[in-house]
Every structure is written in C-alpha cells, then in structure tokens.
Amino acid sequence: MSSTPAAPADADARRAVKPVICYPNETLPVPDLALYHRAREGAVKTGEVRVPPRDAACFEVPAGHFFRITSIEGPQVGDLNLWNKNDLSERFYSGKTRALHGTHITAGERMWTSFPHLRPMATVVADTLGWYGIDDFGGSVHDLIGTRCDPYTGNLLAGSQYHHCCHSNLTRALADHLGVSTAEAEPHVHDVLNVFMCTGFTRDTGQYFMKASPVRPGDYLEFFAEIDLLGSLSACPGGDCSAEHSSDTAACYPMLVEVFAPLEGALGDWKSPPPNGYDRSHGCK
Fold it and tell me: E strands along 165-213, which residues?
C-alpha cells in the first residue's frame, strides 16, 4: 500500500487557489520613524556589552532609548531574547511577530510581546542589511523562523551533550544576570530573533535552511526600545551559519551591543505603548 494517496481529479485546481494573507497589517499602529530618527541623531552612548564567541551576555535598555547590535571582527549571527525588564513573563513573541510582519524583519517593523500584553517592545530603526531582500533561494536575513540551536535537539538527532548552543548560552547569561540558578532561568528563555542569520524554506521539501550570512564587520541592526527591556544575545556557535551549528567547528566572532540615550525632550510627548486593550473576558462575562 502506498504511503502517498492518489491525487484527486481536481488536484491542480485545489493547488491553484489563491492565498489569503492571514493578518493584513495595514491597520497596525505605525511607528513614528521620523521622530525616532531625529531623537537618535543627538543620542549619547551610555554603555556597551561585548558578547564573546559561542557565549551570551545580557544588557538593559530603558524605554525610549536605542540599542544597536553590531557584527565585529568577522561575520557572525546572534540569537536575541527580549523581556520586559520589570516582568519577565512579558517577552518577545516570535510567532506573532512573524504572523504580523513576515518570516524576517527589517527597518520600520517591530518585535511584539507575548499574550496577554501583545504590544510593541522594540522597533527596528536601522538595518545595514536592508539591501539584501529575498534571494533566489527564498532566503532573507533577521530570521523569525528558527527557534534557536539547543542541546535537546542536538541530543535527539546526534546523541550529543553540547553546552555552547544558543539556548544554553542564553540560559547561563540570564542566570548570571539575575543571580539565579540555570534551572530557574531556563524557563524564561524563548524563541529568538536570529540577528543577521540568512534563512528560508526549501521549495521542494519545505525544510528550514540556513546559508552564509551576508553580514560583515560593521554591519548592524538598531532598535528603539518601546518598553523597559532586558535583553540577552548569544553569538551563535554556527558563526555565519554557512555550514553547521551546535558544535565548535565554525569560525566564530564576538558581537557588540551598544545602548544610546536620546537628549532630554528629543522624543517630545512620546509615551511607552500600553498593554493590549482586549478585556480578557474570553466570552465569560
């Protein structure tokens, strides 16, 4: 008996049905990029964190400030987690961000928080890889598809015990920053924004692929913090992700996170966005 069922007579017609965008985003709140760019012009650097290769580091960004992630010394991708600094249960929601903006994000698009808050947490204000677009393989940069390399999948597929994958790196960094055990920190680690990573889905099998990132030293992705943020960035053991990850095979390089404060009054009457307005009754009133 064949494992593949026979195609029905109208198979071609079914495949030819036109797609419908699940979440038309024309009514999303539009960030005031002109305001953000004006505020960024006079902003003053207040701190930086250097992320070692195959490791992670945490950083904090007050609401209304900017942070920049830069590739330094060599091509390197990074896995980014973001939380509400004052409530770690509110964190980056990669799936909903992907549904609202697409599989990859760039300038003018936002990272959104988890339910029940669902509000902007960071807006991309500058992207030096914005020129890349979508290549002939369907690949693009700043990936919302991948979950992060992790030791559990490595063990499942290869029986390995590798401790410097991004999940473990993010867990250690958060534990160190909060002064808690890795067991306490790990449940807060979540699906990431893969900064600089070039990925897509194969057309024949629908599998997630990665390819060499076009990032070069000096390239950066810059954000405006919409709420008080705690971030953690892992310099992925895959390096530029041209071959493999979850190992020490690839050449890896450090990454730099810089934080900038706008001058007083530069944002005018800007206010941090409130949590989502849904009444949370779920039909039970």
Answer: 193-201, 208-211
